[in-house]
Design goal:
Helices cover 63% and strands 2% of the residues. It has 931 residues and is an all-alpha fold. α25 packs antiparallel against α26. Keywords: Repeat.
């Protein structure tokens, strides 16, 4: 695998291909380096160099590459650093008197000191800056070696670690944090300086790296101790808990950590084949909690980590630590977010294959597998290229994820093992959730249709169902829901992990169901949403995905029903169902979806402020089932809504959340679609005696009566009056709902009663005209408004009073303006002409009382239309544009005839044409698409 291209000549002094290494010395020649990096010529493009000034003599290195004399190395590096006067003899010569041949003997440097007394005194003075303990424990004739010093430090740190583990870190005596941090920083600085002085001493590098690991670990504990305790879990707190301790580095700390990282990375470069050193180095890099410093060296670290994974793939410790490092490298950061994200996306194509390979080799190691999944979560976050790479181009990608999703049903599993399985399952599901956000059908199809060993949908459902059963079995209860819940979950919180697993599983299913089939506005009738697919989308693939997701409907509904005290699952479960209603409305309705949604709306909930979000989603699910694009049976929907008291439940929600725009908007949409369903059912049973006695027909009549109740009509008008200024959607659905309600009021077996004027009894005409003027460009609002006005004028009991109010509120100019703004909308032109005709019509017999007054008003309105408007030209233009439209041509010709006549206005009952009578008998055919 060739990671990067060949470097320029000016950059060949560094091994790192991402940037120049801070260490300029190397002990390996070019040929040796190439041999050590990889056995595959194509697996790497790393370059190296040799510096003769710092290359070790083979006389003092054994066959394994270990340094045979640490004291000689100290003398040599002191000479390189430019300090002191030395003998001109070769200090590394095998003929040197008193030299020990055993490189691993701890006391060799004390017994075989090559310096004379004066030189030793000078050397001790110089080296005292590295370690104060070094001069205290030695006399003028001998000096403790760096390896011995580091070994003593490591022994004390290991003892401290064992003691804290035995006592329990919370019970162990605590030092002052500032003092403890100062001691740790001093130890770290001493260690790094020793490693810098003896870069070619393998033992020193091993010990130093191990010390860096422990110091990093203890520094992290100091930061954790300074974090306030008692923070609630994420699901039980209005403010998500930040469970990860963070530290702010000053300039000195950052320099110290940077130097430590440089020392580790240089050791990894100098000893790439030493498994012990690489293992310790990876552990130390993973333990470094200062992520900002890690990311500043990300390119160089990634190079070493990938080499470590490839070179020691059979070592679980190396692979595990490497995966942890990759997770840290790719984790989000609050500072320099854009820079870090760009770097993460750049490195993903190199890191993901290595992660998968490492996880494959150690699939039985749950901790390692979890780290790998977490790293993949970070790399695939908001990165479509990484998502496609993992799902479509890496053969192991989905299989590795599926393996992590497995639900291990083991009896009497201990708490630690249970937490391990939950962590792994959560990490795997989050990888899948990231992949499911990709917009292409190719990626979604790979996930939804994946068969064989992957079986991702089955594994998702297993995780959802069995994790939920475990929660129910343990009778865990959860507090109120936070809408902005964080992805951060306490690794030791079994309930939090379980809820996060179920939440992310529901979100993943919802993402998969969104397969580029969205509800869009139909340009021919903007208020009638229908499903449209892009011509570039392979519809067959989308249909296959839809069929595959049919089996998720029942488990998701059961999850919502079985966890009423867990608002987070209710919220995300309803969001998932909302997506599924686009293509699986029939299945949702057949599995009791309407009953489930209405039960949620009827419950009082835990916290009112949070209930609104859940109730809004429940109403959205109802809207999806009732909408024109729903494939559910219309009679069954109407029957279920009536049986489950659905209409009253929706009105109660409107009254409860009168100030919540989102809930009101969704509730009005549900009411509008329900009224359309009822109107279609009532129209379909006319003349069919057998159908009129069915359950669906009876339910439709009951719902019709409920919609016409005075209290419900006042709620509709009052809410519309509250929101029409600011919300176009509520205005559109509100006027459409009033159109249907007015039709119900006038279709009670053709008998007129005073209730027909209930819509205009308290400013209804003024409200409708105000809504039309406020949203003049919304064609649906104009059509509904003009159609409603025509119906009101046609069937009014207080005819003269309503006409007078219509004219006083500038109704004539409002209707004609709507016709002018939307000349291409035939229904609007038709209804506009009808309004003008009804305004001039005389609906009384000449012998009837009040005929003269009515005729005079009609003549006055006719004069207003002729003299103050351009109605004639407008109607003529409309008739010319819609020559083949029967409604426009009929109403237009009648209106022009009445406007041009010089005689008294013809009574409405005397108008000819059976066609005209039948056309005027109905308002807008807004429900035609339901048929």
């Amino acid at each position: 695998m060739k990671l990067f291209g060949k470097k320029k000549d000016s950059e060949k002094k560094s091994r790192s291909l991402f940037g120049k290494s801070k260490k300029s010395d190397s002990k390996k020649s070019l040929n040796q380096r190439k041999k050590q990096i990889s056995t595959d010529a194509e697996s790497s493009s790393f370059t190296s160099h040799t510096d003769t000034a710092t290359t070790m003599s083979p006389h003092w290195m054994n066959s394994n590459g270990n340094v045979n004399s640490r004291s000689s190395a100290l003398l040599y590096h002191e000479q390189v650093l430019g300090g002191g006067v030395r003998s001109q003899a070769d200090p590394f010569s095998q003929d040197e008197p008193g030299r020990s041949s055993n490189a691993n003997t701890n006391n060799s440097n004390k017994k075989n000191n090559p310096f004379d007394e004066s030189e030793s005194t000078e050397y001790n003075a110089k080296i005292s800056s590295f370690s104060s303990s070094e001069s205290e424990g030695s006399d003028m004739g001998e000096m403790e070696s760096s390896a011995d010093v580091l070994r003593d430090i490591l022994t004390s740190l290991e003892e401290k670690d064992r003691k804290e583990w035995a006592d329990g870190i919370d019970d162990s005596p605590k030092k002052d944090q500032a003092v403890e941090k100062e001691e740790l920083d001093g130890t770290l600085r001493k260690t790094v300086d020793r490693m810098d002085v003896e870069p070619n001493d393998l033992e020193v590098q091993r010990l130093g790296i191990r010390i860096v690991y422990y110091v990093s670990k203890f520094r992290h504990n100091v930061v954790a101790d300074s974090t306030p305790k008692g923070v609630d879990c994420w699901y039980a707190n209005e403010k998500a808990a930040a469970n990860r301790p963070t530290s702010t580095l000053n300039e000195d700390d950052e320099e110290l950590i940077t130097d430590a990282l440089d020392a580790i990375l240089q050791a990894m470069e100098d000893f790439p084949d030493d498994e012990v050193l690489i293992e310790n180095a990876c552990s130390a890099l993973e333990a470094t909690s200062e992520k900002s410093v890690i990311k500043n060296n990300a390119k160089r670290i990634l190079e070493e980590v990938l080499m470590a994974i490839e070179g020691f793939a059979d070592n679980p410790a190396v692979v595990s630590s490497s995966l942890g490092i990759l997770c840290n490298l790719s984790s989000p950061s609050s500072s320099n977010e854009n820079i870090n994200d760009d770097l993460r996306r750049k490195l993903a194509k190199y890191a993901l294959p290595s992660i998968l390979q490492g996880m494959k080799e150690h699939r039985d190691d749950l901790h390692l597998y979890t780290k790998g999944c977490k790293a993949m979560v970070n790399f695939t976050r908001d990165d479509p290229n990484a998502q496609r790479l993992l799902a479509c181009k890496e053969a192991l990608g989905l299989r590795v994820i599926s393996e992590g999703l497995k639900y291990w049903q083991v009896d009497k599993l201990d708490v630690f093992s249970t937490l391990q399985h939950l962590r792994l399952r959560l990490a795997a599901i989050r990888v899948l959730k990231n992949l499911s956000t990709h917009s292409s059908l190719e990626v979604k199809g790979k996930i939804a249709l994946g068969g064989g060993a992957a079986r991702l949908v089955d594994r998702l459902l297993e995780a959802l169902v069995f994790t939920g059963k475990d929660l129910v079995a343990n009778n865990y209860k959860v507090g109120e829901y936070n809408a902005n819940d964080s992805d951060e979950v306490d690794d030791d919180d079994e309930v939090g992990l379980s809820l996060a697993i179920m939440r992310d599983a529901l979100e993943t299913i919802g993402n998969l169901s969104n397969i580029e089939s969205v509800i869009k506005e139909d340009p021919r009738s903007p208020h009638m949403p229908t499903i449209h697919r892009s011509s570039a989308v392979d519809n067959s693939s989308a249909e296959h995905i839809q069929r595959q997701l049919t089996r998720v409907v029942k488990p998701v509904l059961n999850t919502v029903r079985q966890h009423p005290n867990r608002p987070t699952l209710q919220y995300h479960g309803l969001g998932c169902i909302k997506q599924l209603t686009i293509s699986h409305a029939d299945s949702i309705a057949n599995h009791g979806g309407i009953s489930t949604f209405l039960n949620i709306l009827s419950s009082t909930g835990i916290a009112e402020v949070n209930d609104s979000m859940i109730h809004e989603r429940a109403l959205s699910c109802l809207t999806g089932l009732l909408s024109p694009s729903s494939n559910a049976d219309g009679l069954d929907l109407v029957a279920s809504m009536e049986t489950e008291d659905g209409l009253d439940t929706i009105f109660r929600s409107i009254r409860r959340y009168q100030s919540n725009t989102a809930v009101i908007e969704t509730a009005y949409e549900s009411l509008f679609y329900l009224s359309c369903r009822v109107r279609v059912v009532l129209a379909s049973i006319v003349g069919h005696q057998r159908m009129s006695s069915g359950v669906g027909a009876k339910s439709a009549r009951r719902l019709e009566s409920q919609l016409c109740l005075e209290e419900n009509i006042f709620v509709m008008l009052g809410t519309l009056n509250q929101y029409f200024e600011t919300n176009e959607a509520i205005s559109q659905r509100g006027l459409g709902l009033l159109v249907n309600v007015h039709a119900f009021l006038t279709q009670s077996e053709g008998q007129k009663h005073q209730d027909q004027d209930i819509l205009v009894s308290d400013g209804g005409i003024r409200l409708v005209l105000a809504v039309m003027r406020r949203h003049g460009l919304a064609v649906a609002i104009q059509e509904y408004g003009v159609g409603l006005l025509a119906g009101i004028l046609k069937n009014a009991i207080s005819y003269d009073a309503i006409r007078r109010e219509f004219v006083d509120e500038e109704g004539i100019s409002t209707v004609l303006a709507a016709m002018m703004i939307h000349p291409d909308h035939a229904a609007l032109q038709c209804h506009g002409c009808d309004v003008m005709i009804e305004l001039m019509a005389i609906n009384k017999h000449p012998m009837e009382q009040g005929y003269s007054e009515t005729a005079a008003l009609s003549a006055h309105y006719k004069k207003c239309i002729l003299e103050e408007t351009n109605a004639v030209a407008l109607v003529q233009d409309s008739m010319q544009r819609f020559r083949s439209h029967k409604g426009v041509t009929h109403y237009g010709s009648v209106l022009l005839e009445e406007l041009s006549s010089k005689t008294a206005v013809t009574p409405l009952s005397a108008l000819p044409s059976k066609l005209g009578s039948s056309i005027r008998s109905s308002t807008s055919k807004i429900s035609s698409s339901f048929r």
